[in-house]
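Morning, I've got a small favour to ask if you have a moment. I owe you a coffee for this, so here goes:
>
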Amino acid sequence: MIELASYRDKKQIIKSYSYTKPYLKRKGTLYVDKINDECRGFAFVQQRKIVNEPNKTEDLILVIEVFKEENRNKGIASALVQHIISEARRNGSYQIIAYYQKNNIPSHKLWIKNSFSIIGVKNSVTQIVSCIATYKI
């Protein structure tokens, strides 16, 4: 079940998965997928103004993850994405975006499965290709 995370949920995620701390210490909204008080996955979203459209906002998905291997490929990440889409629509956001690395095939499949458009971007200095997934509300 997808729900807004409590302060306790946030602390537990950071304690169990320390690599999440840089994301979760930012200002934003944390959603968790929980069953029997166990957090199976989470998504962290920030809302920001669109630079060239000052009256519009977009939701930026900073991180989305399903923790345990046995819980992956069971629709948890898609449920989180669909919840974010519903909340963005309810809050009047213009679009949702997420960034991911070109070689992150599970992430690519997640965005395609949930009807996001994909744009590849090549950094002219590092030559690293990253992708932007976008969903217009």
